[in-house]
Design a protein that fits this description.
The complex is a heterodimer of chains A (105) and B (286). Chain A contains 2 helices and 7 strands, in the order βββββαββα. With 105 residues, chain A is an alpha/beta fold. Chain A has one domain: Ribosomal Protein S5, domain 2, CATH 3.30.230. Chain A has a 5-stranded mixed beta sheet with strand order 1-5-7-4-3, covered by helices on one side. In chain A, strands 2-6 form a two-stranded parallel sheet. The longest helix of chain A is centred in the middle third of the chain and has 15 residues. With 286 residues, chain B is an alpha/beta fold. Chain B has a domain of 184 residues: 2-enoyl-CoA Hydratase, Chain A, domain 1. In chain B, strands 1-2-3-4-5-6-7 form a 7-stranded mixed beta sheet, with helices on both faces. Classes of the chains: A alpha/beta (105), B alpha/beta (286).
């Protein structure tokens, strides 16, 4: 059977900074070496991160980048959804910070 | 001055219409994404590469669509095309003062094959229905990817085309022409050749584009406002005029843009690529 092309990864962290209600935030574009990040309000106190990427086999690096992001922002009640086309970890971190910044009132 | 070419589709929309007036339909959170790309191992975009909605422009109600050139080259897939068609159909019902299309596209998204081809033809039909109802359709072209293939045809179906010098408008892109006819016919790496064959200045001088602006969002906004009442009804007489114009081009025997500009009465046509928009207008050719 042909292996599906996209890799899907999910992470969840308990957060302390409740985002409350907000209009969904979209930053970035799905292009070569780039990604889009969508932030939406979610029930509960977790920050959940869902990733779909065309670059397979980098789960350990995604886990580290997601962990670092959460350590920086401690978001709670947020769903983070990512469509990635081979962005480097630095670009991913910058996009995540850009999205988190848009949440600030 | 904000470069139109360097903005994303959403940044262009935000800057072009009245501040804060854009209301999006089927926003990213609705996740209306391509049903085809995942099978090819390609990530989807939450908006399938196009943002659609309503806004005001100089206080007047308009419908707007903006294609994102960075996502699959702005290629029109099934959902992307359906969003454009839906916008035009809604315009027939709600009758805004105009529909603005911020085009940046290589044409059909080849990954989606027939679904993309059908989508583009449906966009053309829907656009012409809107024109036939007397609502002007204004196409703005100034992104780095230009406006090619099926979307090039869509643009020329509109009432009014606004371009910057950076913008390009054509059917086949440079690489496609070189691949099919050879580098002697068209060298796609010769950027000067590419721009004087498909770029905004050439399109404006030859009458394929109605307004030429600098690569500045404010310039595009001003040109769009000026075009709000530029409806060109689809009539038999207008079509016959268009055919006459195209037939006249067939008899032109020059090989290149510069002698063509000379034949249009441009003094020192070799200088055109170096002129800014004001200087080009100042030549008085149009």
């Amino acid at each position: 059977m042909m292996q599906p092309g996209l890799e899907t990864l999910d992470y969840s962290f308990p957060g302390t900074r409740a985002a409350g209600a907000f209009t969904p935030v979209l930053v970035g574009v799905v292009g070569s070496g780039n990604l889009e990040v969508l932030l939406e309000p979610a029930p509960g106190a977790d920050c959940r991160i869902h990733i779909e990427t065309s670059a397979r086999g980098f789960g350990a690096i995604w886990a580290a980048v997601a962990q670092d992001f959460h350590a920086r922002h401690q978001l709670a009640g947020v769903q983070v959804s990512i469509h990635d086309m081979g962005a480097t970890p630095a670009v991913v971190s910058l996009r995540l910070d850009q999205a988190a910044q848009e949440l600030q009132p | 001055m904000i470069s139109y070419a360097e903005c994303s589709a959403r940044e262009r929309l935000a800057q072009l219409v009245d501040a804060g007036s854009f209301h999006e339909w089927l926003p990213p959170a609705a996740r209306l994404t391509s049903p085809h790309l995942a099978q090819l191992g390609l990530p989807a975009a939450f908006d399938d590469g196009v943002a659609i909605g309503r806004a005001t422009l100089a206080g007047r109600a308009v419908f707007v669509a903006a294609q994102e050139g960075e996502f699959m080259g702005g290629g029109v897939g099934e959902v992307h095309g359906a969003k454009l068609v839906g916008l035009f159909k809604r315009a027939l019902r709600d009758r805004p003062d105009a529909v603005l299309l911020l085009a940046e596209s290589g044409g059909v998204r080849l990954h989606e094959a027939n679904a993309g081809l059908i989508a583009v033809s449906e966009v053309m039909r829907a656009l012409l229905d809107v024109r036939a109802a007397g609502i002007p359709v204004i196409v703005l072209i100034g992104g780095a990817n230009g406006c090619f293939g099926g979307m090039g045809i869509v643009a020329r179906c509109a009432d009014h085309v606004v371009m910057s010098d950076i913008g390009r408008l054509a059917m086949s892109g440079p690489e496609v022409i070189e691949a099919s006819h050879g580098v002697e016919e068209f060298d796609s790496r010769d950027r000067a050749l590419v721009w004087r064959t498909t770029g905004g200045k050439h399109r404006w001088l030859s009458g394929d584009c109605d307004a030429l602006v600098e690569d500045d969002v404010a310039g595009f906004r001003a040109a769009a406002i000026a075009a709000l009442d530029a409806a060109r009804p689809v009539t038999l007489a207008a079509l016959e005029d268009e055919h006459e114009l195209l037939a006249a081009r067939l008899s032109y025997d020059g090989a290149e843009a510069i002698p063509l500009w000379a034949s249009l009465g441009v003094p020192e046509p070799g200088r055109v690529p170096d002129l800014d928009v004001a200087a080009l207008r100042g030549l008085g050719v149009r």
